From TrEMBL:
<dbReference type="InterPro" id="IPR003692">
    <property type="entry name" value="Hydantoinase_B"/>
</dbReference>
<dbReference type="InterPro" id="IPR045079">
    <property type="entry name" value="Oxoprolinase-like"/>
</dbReference>
<protein>
    <recommendedName>
        <fullName>Hydantoinase B/oxoprolinase domain-containing protein</fullName>
    </recommendedName>
</protein>
<dbReference type="GO" id="GO:0005829">
    <property type="term" value="C:cytosol"/>
</dbReference>
<dbReference type="Pfam" id="PF02538">
    <property type="entry name" value="Hydantoinase_B"/>
</dbReference>
<dbReference type="GO" id="GO:0017168">
    <property type="term" value="F:5-oxoprolinase (ATP-hydrolyzing) activity"/>
</dbReference>
<feature type="domain" description="Hydantoinase B/oxoprolinase">
    <location>
        <begin position="8"/>
        <end position="553"/>
    </location>
</feature>
<dbReference type="GO" id="GO:0006749">
    <property type="term" value="P:glutathione metabolic process"/>
</dbReference>
Length: 584
């Protein structure tokens, strides 16, 4: 296809925003038509547009870990189906080896056909985290999983809509019947909710199809695809300039960093910058072997973390897209925890190891101190199989909990915020207590948990639950044995801690009322990764890590600084909701 020699700067900005607005409209549709707490309230979903070759074109600011890896999923399905796609088809996938992140993140992909030539001109895609897709524990995020079969339904490719016909029977086979065949595992515990949310994703994708076809009708296919190309070139050029500036500032073309997971597994990175070309090789040689647990991270997630870091270090307003990766060569050692085998457990790699990858990249580029390095994944629920192996209906709840962000040269870290690759909200306490058998006793900042420095790290949070019925409760977390580091003399932040507060019970199992808040309570540190059956009246106290400090602490420990803010205006569904709440 012929390309314009130089883009019109006004049209370049216009199309960048038009593409982003399509993704935002998809997100609004998904939020409004979904029913689960996870998608409707917590906003744990992403929507994006892709070129005919599967490259990411534009997205709204949803979940960074979704957006960087969804291109892998689109390209995998393109190779698998090639000429098999037709109007009215929607593909469904969640396999980490088909461009997925972890199994609860289900991706739906819809081809966009030109209304005249009937050729594929775009793809729209949405990825949502579904609270339960089967596996050995409610919530499908088992802290102790050792293979992928224990984590729920794995779907490499399924045509959930075929020529406009929704395949409900096929969905139930993939989501309910197949995962239940693995010993100790259940199928999806709440298939009605999952089915409803998947239909909301289908509708969101269709919204994007309609808007893209309207854009093509307005401007013509040639112009739209020309500017799609120019937007990617603009991102590529911005990253090349960033790499040149970093090499010049560091006085070296070689950067390196290493950090460790709580189990001691190293994540090692060496960056070699070609200053002339504005290119770089990011080599993770030296990273630890695949682990027996679930902290293995699919290759697509590694690329998500890298593309996020590049975009985050750019102080210009451009959509995150495939152009950000063009100047980069990412090398991942075979048999490492960043390139796991087909059956390796991965549910923690997407939400925990990815955070550590981001910390390592930003440490190598000397951008900021470590953030909390965790998403503090809490799941609880009921259901599965009875003693005879018969499926029992149930439900699962999932949430991630904020912490502190790291400080940098000229700004304090932010307290009580989701950091880096996650961008979700916490569940509203009113909705949480109305829908689930829990009471929330405390939710607030964890004082002095951020690292001290010339610029202080942000504080983590405290979140304390009481369970009003016996429930299976799981926590999957990091930074419980290794503190988020400071930089340039800044102090490390406090590590996180998970405590089971257990009261004395009568022989019938009920809690003794007079031991509540008394010396007869037991405080049990359950570690970073645990599954516990908590009885009625038991409490779980989660204290999340802070962010590291930057610079040597001085006598003036309250050094004033403006909070670090990007030069662009916040936008997207989260920003819109925050603006609506602020207007009341």
């Amino acid at each position: 296809m012929a390309r314009k020699s130089a883009p019109d700067p006004i049209l370049l900005t216009l199309f960048a925003n038009r593409f982003m607005s399509v993704a935002e409209a998809m997100g609004r549709s998904l939020q409004q038509t979904s029913i689960s707490t996870n998608i409707k309230e917590r906003l744990d979903f992403s929507c994006a547009l892709f070129a005919p070759d599967g490259d990411l074109v534009a997205n709204a600011p949803f979940i960074p870990i979704h957006l960087g890896s969804m291109s892998f999923a689109v390209k995998y399905q393109m190779r698998l189906h090639e000429k098999d796609l037709k109007e009215g088809d929607v593909l469904m996938t969640n396999s980490p080896h088909a461009g997925g992140s972890h199994l609860p993140d289900i991706t739906l992909i819809t081809p966009v056909f030109d209304t005249e030539t009937r050729e594929i001109i775009f793809f729209t895609a949405s990825r949502g985290h579904h609270a339960d897709i089967g596996g050995i524990l409610p919530g499908s995020m088992p802290p102790t999983s050792v293979n992928i079969f224990e984590e729920g339904a794995e779907i490499i490719s399924f045509k959930i809509v075929n020529a406009g016909v929704f395949d409900r029977e096929g969905l139930h086979e993939y989501m309910v019947e197949r995962p239940a065949q693995y010993p100790g595992s259940s199928g999806c515990r709440n298939i009605k909710e999952v089915e409803s949310d998947l239909k909301a994703q289908i509708a969101a994708n269709h919204k994007g199809v309609q808007l893209l076809q309207a854009m093509v009708k307005e401007y013509g296919l040639q112009t739209v695809q020309d500017y799609m190309y120019h937007i990617r070139m603009n991102a590529e050029s911005s990253v090349r300039n960033l790499l040149r500036e970093v090499a010049k500032r560091a006085g070296s073309n070689v950067l390196s960093a290493v950090d460790y997971l709580d189990d001691g597994s190293p994540l090692q990175l060496k960056v070699e910058i070609d200053e002339k070309e504005g290119a770089a090789v990011l080599d993770f040689e030296g990273t630890g072997y695949e682990v027996r647990g679930n902290l293995n991270s699919p290759i697509s997630v590694v690329h998500s973390a890298v593309i996020y870091c590049m975009r985050a270090m750019l102080d210009v307003d451009i959509p995150l897209n495939a152009g950000c990766l063009v100047p980069l060569t990412v090398r991942i050692p075979e048999r490492s925890l960043l390139s796991p085998s087909q059956t390796a457990a991965v549910c923690g790699g997407n939400v925990l190891t990815s955070q550590r990858i981001v910390d390592v990249v930003l440490k190598a580029f000397h951008a900021c101190a470590a953030s909390q390095g965790c998403t503090n994944n809490l799941t609880f629920g009921t259901g599965g199989k009875d003693k005879d192996g018969v499926a029992v209906a149930g439900w699962g709840y999932y949430e991630t909990i904020a912490g502190g962000s790291g400080a940098g040269p000229g700004w304090h870290g932010t307290s009580g915020v989701h950091t880096h690759i996650t961008n979700t909200r916490i569940g509203d306490v009113e909705i949480l207590e109305r829908r689930y058998p829990v009471l929330l006793h405390r939710f607030g900042l964890r004082p002095d948990s951020g690292g001290k420095g010339k610029w202080h790290g942000g504080d983590g949070v405290i979140r304390e639950f009481e369970f009003t019925h016996g429930l299976q409760v799981s926590i999957l977390s990091e930074r419980r044995t290794r503190a988020p580091y400071g930089m340039e003399g800044g102090e490390p932040a406090m590590m996180g801690r998970n405590t089971w507060i257990k009261g004395r019970r009568r022989e019938d199992g009920d809690l003794v009322d007079d031991c509540v808040e008394s010396e007869e309570q037991r405080f049990i540190n359950i570690g970073g990764k645990a599954t516990v059956f908590m009885g009625k009246g038991d409490r779980l106290l989660i204290e999340t890590p802070g962010g590291g400090g930057w610079g040597l602490p001085t006598d003036n420990t309250l050094q004033e600084a403006q909070p670090h803010k990007p030069t662009w205006e916040a936008r997207g569904s989260i920003a819109e909701r925050a603006g609506a709440q602020a207007s009341f």
